[in-house]
Amino acid sequence: MANTNLNQAKRAKNDEFYTQYADIEKEIFAYLDYDPNVFRGKTILLPCDDPEWSNFTRFFVANFRRLGLKKLISTSFAVDSKTYKGKYQPSLFEMNDAKFDPQKTTRKGKVFILDGDKTGDCKINIDDLDWQYLNGNGDFRSAEVTALRDEANIIITNPPFSLFREFLAWIMEANKQFLIIGNMNALTYKEVFPRIKENKIWLGVSSGTKIFIKPDKTEQKMGNTCWYTNLEHGRRHQPLSLMTIADNLRYSRHKEIREQGYQRYDNYDAIDVPFTDAIPSDYDGVMGVPVSFLDRYCPEQFEIVGITKTWFGGVTKIYPKQIQVSPNGQKNNVTKLNDGVAIKIAVPPRGQTYYMVGNEYYIQLYARILIRHRRDTQNNYNATN
What we know:
Layout (H helix, E strand, L loop, with lengths): L1 H11 L5 E2 L1 H14 L8 E7 L5 H8 L1 H4 L3 E6 L15 H4 L14 E5 L15 E4 L9 H9 L2 E4 L6 H9 L4 E7 L9 H5 L4 E2 L4 E6 L5 E11 L15 H7 L3 H6 L10 E2 L14 E4 L11 E6 L14 E4 L5 E4 L6 E5 L8 E4 L2 E6 L2 E6 L1 H9 L2
Parallel strand pairs: 2-3, 2-6, 6-7, 11-12
Antiparallel strand pairs: 1-9, 3-4, 4-5, 7-10, 8-10, 9-10, 12-19, 13-19, 14-15, 14-17, 16-18, 17-18
């Protein structure tokens, strides 16, 4: 159901979901644990936001002094430009201000700026925000929001799922630090994975199911979400504790490992490791692991070699047209085996889609990240920790 919600939002481009305060707080404080000064003296931009309602704005206003921020900038997208056309009511914050314009409130984006105690009460809170209407609708691709991007040091937000590729490229072209929420499936995008492989992007601290608030104020539960960042945190430098091949075959908590061992791919030079905690400590070849492995990826422990996606390359075999057999026995002529990683099997499986190439049978797996151990780097790292 969670992935269905994400897919429906992507198709409809109705991906306006507000992040919970507790999720923001948990993630941000984890970076402070690693580097207490990570945000000190920095200008933070919160684009794709609704500053009057956003928990991102609330959090950074409330923690402005604790984080040692220099400046906070939040921008909103005009109501009339949104795909979601729900009931709209300007906030009292806007309506009670002399700048309020009933003609602009739905047509223009807004920018909110906080850079100190404006009211003179020796506190920093929501009353110290200064705001104005933007010239345009607040689209992050506009010249005026791009100028704010260029001014900022760090960009933090929950961008529209449907524009994730474009939003990430917008950040990266300016060489900014960032912390953004996205679907974990985005790890397999050709616009994202190469940067993961090059250690220019990594996952944040907390991944998995999150609760978002929809514009109608109801809750939306979504799995497979994660934070993407280039801010350092301690978790990604914690190596996994692993067992040997022999111990996994004997003691693994996964029945598939104990009974089937590590199967070899038919079209990639690697073995399949279907569970992150089943990665063998003593295998020196290439291993295919689930995409979720990146949530535990330690760059001192592993090298990322590639991904089993057609656009990346690396296949060792191309299949002719196949017959796809669905669990109910329906047959179709396809070329899907060339879209991912395949395992050759002796007999057709029950209750599972499989493929026939002549008299040979195959199954196809979800996308795998191809990795191998960093022996020299890992030994040096262990020696100093």
